[in-house]
Prior knowledge:
The chain has two domains: 2-119, 3-Layer(aba) Sandwich (Rossmann fold), CATH 3.40.50; 126-219, Winged helix-like DNA-binding domain superfamily/Winged helix DNA-binding domain (Arc Repressor Mutant, subunit A). It has helices at residues 10-22, 33-36, 39-42, 59-68, 84-93, 105-119, 152-163, 171-179, 186-204; strands at 2-6, 26-30, 47-51, 75-79, 97-100, 126-129, 132-135, 140-143, 146-147, 168-169, 209-212, 216-219. The mean pLDDT is 89. The protein starts with a strand and ends in a 5-residue tail after the last strand. The chain is an alpha/beta fold. The longest helix is centred in the C-terminal third of the chain and has 19 residues, at 186-204. Helix 4 links the parallel strand 3 (47-51) and strand 4. Helix 7 crosses helix 9 (186-204).
Amino acid sequence: MKFLVVEDDDLLRHHIHYQLENSGHKTYVVPDAEEALDIPQQSEIDAAIIDLGLPGISGIELIRTLRQQGNGFPILILTARGNWENKVTGLEAGADDYMVKPFHIEELKARLNALVRRSSGFSQPYITAGPFTLDLSRKQVLAHQTPMTLTAYEYQILEYLMRHNQQVVNKQKLINILYENEGRDSNVLEVLIGRLRKKLEAAGNVSPIETVRGQGYLFNLYCT
């Protein structure tokens, strides 16, 4: 998943960045609202972590601006202000949850995972489809309750397609998710999709990823 982290404390910003990246996520870390506003225009964001006490434009104003621009991703507030008025103000500005500093990084990860699951329509830390179970916390896929061996790229593709099941996802969207601005072409993606299909069919006796000619790919099992 891709997270935007807006925190002016250098040490805390580095710590969050390290912990999330070490858990397999992509993070965009910036110290102020001005830089933060550019990120959603350049990349698809799954959730944002925003400190309220930012220099210049406040965290509250940043949240309001992001919502006014039409960004619907979940927003988690970080604040050293524990009084209820600040929490209410942040939630009314468009945030989805808040944490008071200091906090435990494992709780932060759990809150983020829960927010992203709910925004995708899933309330549990698992996505199931036919014989397949996606463990979002462990980044693991099981077929008939047996763990599968997938590469990081294969897992990313499968998670995105399952989160958007029954929707056609175009090739460029998947390329951008995997490689950002590295300039990879669709041939690389086709190889990864082909390899993933073989693994799913061998483990689950079904091949749920369909090619929609001229449009992209479709995960054609209903996910719950």
